Structures are given as C-alpha cells and as structure tokens.
Structure prediction request, 710 residues.
Amino acid sequence: MKKHNFSAGPCILPQEVLQKASDAILNFNNDDLSLIEISHRSKSFVAVMDKARSLALELLGLENKGYKALFLHGGASLEFLMVAYNLLHKKAAYLNTGTWSDKAIKEAKAFGEVIEVGSSKDKGYAYIPKGFTIPADADYFHCTSNNTVAGTQIKEFPKTDVPLICDMSSDIFSRQLDFEKFDLIYAGAQKNMGPAGTTLVVVKEEILGKVERHIPSMLSYQTHIEKDSMFNTPAVFPVYVSMLTMQWLKDLGGIQFIEEVNTKKAALLYDEIDRNPLFKGIVAKEDRSTMNATFNLTDDSLKKTFDKMWTAAGINGLNGHRSVGGYRASMYNALPLYSVQVLVDVMQTLEKSHL
Amino acid sequence: MKKHNFSAGPCILPQEVLQKASDAILNFNNDDLSLIEISHRSKSFVAVMDKARSLALELLGLENKGYKALFLHGGASLEFLMVAYNLLHKKAAYLNTGTWSDKAIKEAKAFGEVIEVGSSKDKGYAYIPKGFTIPADADYFHCTSNNTVAGTQIKEFPKTDVPLICDMSSDIFSRQLDFEKFDLIYAGAQKNMGPAGTTLVVVKEEILGKVERHIPSMLSYQTHIEKDSMFNTPAVFPVYVSMLTMQWLKDLGGIQFIEEVNTKKAALLYDEIDRNPLFKGIVAKEDRSTMNATFNLTDDSLKKTFDKMWTAAGINGLNGHRSVGGYRASMYNALPLYSVQVLVDVMQTLEKSHL
Prediction:
C-alpha cells in the first residue's frame, strides 16, 4: 500500500506520473530506447523540453506576454546567485521570511547593496512582515512566496514599481495569483513540479541586460534563453517528469482546480489543529501556509505515542525541519485530501485516548 | 528488441541498471514510496549518496589519498566556471583539443590570464597537440581527456608540477590511468556513469583555498565538501542511477575489466574502418578515441544506402556531431561488443554490394 506522504520535498508526485516515468526508463515513446539513453538533441527529447516550457507558461497564464520559461540546473540555491549576477546593479530589496530568503540575501550581498526591507527572523520566522517600504530606486524586490521550514506563506504581494522577483519553489502551481505582476519567478522542481534536479525559471525578457558585469555563460539567463534552455545537456529525466506533472495538472483543470483542493486540505488540518486541545499551530494564523502546516503537541510527553500512531497509519514525513523540530504536514498538489483525513483521524484518536 | 545504441551522450546504460531504476520510481527499497518522492535527507537517500561517492573513489583507486568525491549540479559546463572560480589566481594553462576545451577556456578567461599551451583548432581538432610546455608558475593545467565531437583522446598526460585538472566527462571509468597524478577530475554523468543531471567532481582537497576572490556558495568546492555533497537538494534520480552504474562496473571487475572490453570494441571498429575501402577515419590514428570513433564514407553518394542499412539493423545514434557531420560510433562502457559487430557487419554488407 502506498504511504500517505507528507514529505516536505522531494515530495509526493501523482501516481500516474510515477507510472509513466517508470515506463519511460525502460522504453520511451515505444522507440525501444530508454528516455535516459537518448540524445537530448533528439526530436523526442526536444519535444519534451518544448512542451515543459510551454506548459509552465500556460499554467501561469503567461503565454505571449514577454516571458520565457527555462529549465535549468542547480536548484533554487543557484538561482539565489543567478538573480543577483544578472540583475543586481547597485542595490536590491529583499524580504527575509525564512531560511531560504536568508540564503538568497547572503548570496546577493557579494554583488551590491542589499536592503532587508522586512524580516521576521526575530520571532523564528513565525509570521510574514507587512507594511514595509520598497525603495523606488532598488534594482528589484525579492521575496519567498512560501516558507517550508516555518510554514508561512505570503498572501498578498506588495505593490511596487521595481521588478518583482519571487522564489516560488514550494508553492508554484498551487494557487492563483496575478502572475503578470512578477518579473522573474523561479522554483526548484521537487515540490509541486517534479523530481529534484531541475529548476523552472520564468523571466520577463525586458528586465535582462541591464547590469554591466561579465556574466559567466552558465549563470546568464540570456545564454539559456538564446539556446531554448538547451545550452548544455539538461537534466533529462527531471525535466520529463516535470512535464508529465504539469500535464497532469492541466488535465485536472489547472491551478484553479488544484487551489480548491489545496484550500480544502489546509482547512481540514488547520481546523483540527485549532480544535484539538492536544495540538497547537506555530505561526501567525493569517500567514499560515496551505502547503506546509507546522504544529506542536501541547503535551510533549505524548510524542512517542503520537509518532507510533501516525507511523502505524502509513503516514510518512511528518517530522518538522531538522532546524526547528515539531511536526510539519506538507500538503503539496499531489497529496490527496484522503491522506489529510487519515492524519486528522489519528489526531482525533490520540485525543480520545488521552483526554 | 533493444536498439544498438551508439548515441554520443546521453547514451546507453546497462539494461540491469535501467530495470532497477525503473523499479525504484515505483517502489524504492520496498519502502512503499518512490525514490523521487522521499526526502533527500532520509536515511535511504543519504545511503545512496554516500555509496555513490565512495564507489567513485574506489573505482578510481583514490580512497584515503586526500580526495573527495562530489555529485554536483550543472554538468561539465558549470565545472568550466567552477574550476576557474576556485583555482585561477593569476594564470592557468589550458590545452585546446576541441569544442569542450574551447568552452572551458572561454569561461576561465574572465578570471585571469589563460595560456593556451597547445591547440589543434587549426586542423579541426583532428589530433592531440604534443610536446607543449606548461609554465611552471601556472596555477593549474587543464585538459579534456576525450573529445566526443572530433573523436580524439589523450593517451599520455603531460608530466607537470602544477595541479593537473581534467574534464573526463566522456571517458571516465573506461580505462586505467594513474589517477593520483590528477588533482581535480570532473565528469558529467551522461556517458559512462548515469543519466544527465549530475556531475562527478573528484578533488584533492589540498589544492583548494588558495584564491582570494569571494566564491559564491554554490560554486565553491569547499561548500560542497563541508556538506558531504548535500549543500542543497541533489539531483536524486541521476545520483541514484550513477550509483547503480558504478556498482555494475565494480561487480564486473572495475575499470581493469571494462578497459579490455573497450579496447576490443574499438579495435574491431577501427580495423574495419581501415580495411574497408568504403570508409575512412577522420583523426590521427595514434590519437583515436576508444569511446567515439569518427569516420566518413569514401563515396558520399552511398550515404542514403548506408543510413538505411544501419537503421534497418536496429542501430541508433550513428550520425556525427551536428557541427562536423559524417559518422560517429560512440562505444561507451555499457555498449556490448555485439553491437559493434552488428555495425561492422553492415559496413561489410555495404562493401560487398557496392564494390
């Protein structure tokens, strides 16, 4: 029996995608060759890359609006660097909402002045700073839409005239946003998109070409745009599985459909956290992530019992991030509502037997 | 029926590796979870990464000799940049033996003086330059061991006191060398090691830490060494399949065993190219690659017929690199001797029917 996989990432992917991916390793397109042993310049794979790039723009509603989609190497961690390399001329504004923002800030500092316009570091990143001011002369504003470690999510993005750059690694394709407000979106694949090893970058071309420094080929967005995301051999398998997952989402009804499911899943779990006296949420209610719900037991002595119970129920990946502890239920796009119900049932059983 | 896959890369992988990889996508380690939906920090995956790193050192005979093995993102193309970022203080010596050396040189030039100690660019890279001098005060000497596009291979590496750095993307694990002579070896996975999306770096720690420039986290070898190659989420599937392929090679008898097979395969094909009046080799005989044999028809009018014949024989990927044309038979570790025999048979059939 498949587990109820609440892993924070890499995370659950749709079962039909896994089946297709497994088949393609043995025989891709009925070509009597494995997906992973054909040339990335073959017609078969170029079609995969093109489809992945167009599906990304289509799902975000960004087709024919001056954006390019790229599938690059290096994860979001390399994007922390690439964003600064390509766009930081003099100074940039960053919002610090967690571990990942903090890392992005660290990498950017080597390239210019970094203004931290807001930070929730003082309270363990348990809320999203609001009411901050973005300098009008900043080269760009950077934020992290969803914070996997603390379990917070930006619900309203600031209005600003400077380019808006967002790390959406952990909530891309999970909710409707006015994506046209963003000038550059990036996302490591391993949450809602596919397996680890590729990174989606959606960039509005007009923001590029404005810094004077030399940009190494592999770090230049323009290099990758000019080569249709095939400057060097792409991560063939991760790109293919990302394509399959985006196609799965499109067939279901796209972001509009999945947002409804995600809202239901989050409501089911947060309602239980708030209702059940044995549990308490960790972050500010208005900033709670629909992707990653973080919570603690109100009585730590129940930890062993609770851990035994959810493990017995076939639940996987419920431990909090190693830097904070507690519990974290990650409810990405592919996690069924039923899995959340199983977790809620375990929480209620614990309550009945211990209160 | 599986094809005879002469693709230049991504390329053929062992059938038993493909089967295990396909199985792991559905159920890894009988954990009722897919390999690609578990945390990269899980015990199961950390064991994969550790095994991959130790197998790489073991196969190369570099255990306990001051080397670290890393599996990084970005392909050899990112290594062109990382080598220079981490090691180029004032000037470095490069040998230009083809497309990939040329790209490595281009990236390095932004970081210091690059001395091209030898080049075969004047003759379409159809030979390996010899008798060149490496300046004793160079920060390092960089070369490409095997040139996939032209089909040449360095048979003897220069003696030098400066650190020896080698891009072995297309012939790693294919032949015995005194690997201790090298200070840094890198190789994109997609030839003899695994699927595209991860890059092996084997580096002697003592050569690091000598440049003064700021090195961004993701580009610093020291970052990745400190984090046991898990600074950020690795390309889980490519690393896993690389581990399986290295284990397959070890079980067969390691590099010593496969070198014998590779020598037989290359001899079989080159003997036919030299014997058959309808074919001619392209590069200097003493520099011929055992991995990629490049050749032309002596009579171009036979092209259509030959192409039809090898396609009908179930052969895939025999066209030369798009930049040079002609034919290229890539005979990586996983290609059976039998596939080369099938190609030779087609060449002989062409001869019989047209001479």
User: Anything to note?
Assistant: Chain A has two domains: 15-252, 254-354. DSSP finds nine helices and 14 strands in chain A.
